Amino acid sequence: MFTYIVRRLVATIPVMAIVAVMVFAMLRLTPGDPASIIAGAAATSQDVAEIRTRLGLDRPIVSQFFIWIGHLLGGDLGESFFFKRQVADLVLDRVGPTVALSTMTILWSVLIAVPLGVVAAWKQGSWVDRVVMGFSVLGFSVPVFVIGYVLIYVFAIKLSWLPVQGYQPLRDGLGGFIGHLVLPSLTLSVIYIALIARITRTSVLEVLSEDYIRTAHAKGLPNRIVLMRHALRNAAVPIVTVIGIGIALLIGGVVVTESVFSIPGLGRLTVDAVLARDYPTVQAVILLFSVVYVLLNLVVDVAYTFLDPRIRY
Q1: Rounded distance, CA 163 to CA 185, Å?
Q2: Residues 192 and 119 in one domain
Q3: Together in a domain, 30 and 125
Q4: Tally of structural domains, the chain
Q5: Taking all residues of the chain, what is their mean pLDDT, rounded to a whole number?
Q6: Are residues 152 and 278 in the same domain?
Q7: 309 pLDDT band (50/70/90 cuts)?
Q8: CA 275, 278, 283, 289 torsion: positive or negative?
Q9: What is the pTM of this model?
């Protein structure tokens, strides 16, 4: 197992190198000049040229790339063009809201979707099954920002139960912390509830047709024990896989959700940095997301051995 983990970690090095090259190249090929945005509409061409020289944007692209890689290997993410702060400090300031939102989203998704999928498989063909499958189709069809605006209109504007936007750190109170995260986490979790519930139903249905499930019923075990201890446990590998993929896919959803609910996280930072052509910030955030994605895939692969003792690496 240890050798497998080391090999996987070593294999991430070329992956991250490719990501770094692609991100750097795409940002430079995207229309828009950071110096012009920083200088403003009233700036002269000489002002823009001076800013480009100060930021190092007048150097050849290859030189810029190797300078950035050298700083990156030394642990320096650079200084933000737009925010005029070290990128590492910006990321540390914004990572808390994103982690909190992602954690609550995954909790909502797993706690709701897995029981729904199990019940839909157990009641295959019933109205419960049809409702769950209908919700799955609806969850995939409606965009995240539409769900967000609907929830804001109903629960924040009409009913005044929850705050509309913003974020409150945990140190300022548990109630406010959870209250500000309920709507955005529910908004973001709809698509993952639909995905996980559908995969759970399919996996459990496949297991329910096995001989050992019929044997468990013949022994007189209650349905709850058969479903949870025998069916769900043996169907856990594909469910954990899709949960891991869902956590990785949260990256895209967080960007939209944090923008809709004005949450000062990494997603909102990415949007602001892209609009301002803030190269160092965009590069650092995308690399961070890539590292998280790779590590989550590794954690999911390692978790297989605990869920199914027959799996060995």
Answers
A1: 13
A2: yes
A3: no
A4: 2
A5: 81
A6: yes
A7: low
A8: negative
A9: 0.81
Q: What residues does 86 pair with on adjacent strands?
A: 79
| Residue 112 pLDDT exceeds 80 | yes
Q: Which tokens belong to 13?
A: 């090095």
Q: Cα separation of 247 and 299, whole Å? A: 12
SS (H, E, C) the chain: CHHHHHHHHHHHHHHHHHHHHHHHHHHHHCCCCHHHHHHCCCCCHHHHHHHHHHHCCCCCHHHHHHHHHHHHHCCCCCECCCCCCEHHHHHHHHHHHHHHHHHHHHHHHHHHHHHHHHHHHHCCCCHHHHHHHHHHHHHHHCCHHHHHHHHHHHHHHHCCCCCCCCCCCHHHCHHHHHHHHHHHHHHHHHHHHHHHHHHHHHHHHHHHCCHHHHHHHHCCCCHHHHHHHHHHHHCHHHHHHHHHHHHHHHHHHHHHHHHHCCCCCHHHHHHHHHHCCCHHHHHHHHHHHHHHHHHHHHHHHHHHHHHCCCCCC
Using alpha carbons, select from 285, 278, 284, 279 the residue that is nearest to residue 255: 285
Domain that holds residue 49: 11-73
Name the domain boundary from 73, 106, 122: 73
CATH at residue 109 = 1.10.3720.10
Pair of tokens at residue 206:
């496949």
The Cα 57–Cα 302 span in angstroms is 43
Is 14 in contact with 294 (CB distance < 8 Å)?
Answer: no
- Looking at residue 82, its pLDDT comes to 80
- Angle formed by the axes of helices 279-307 and 266-275, nearest 10°: 150
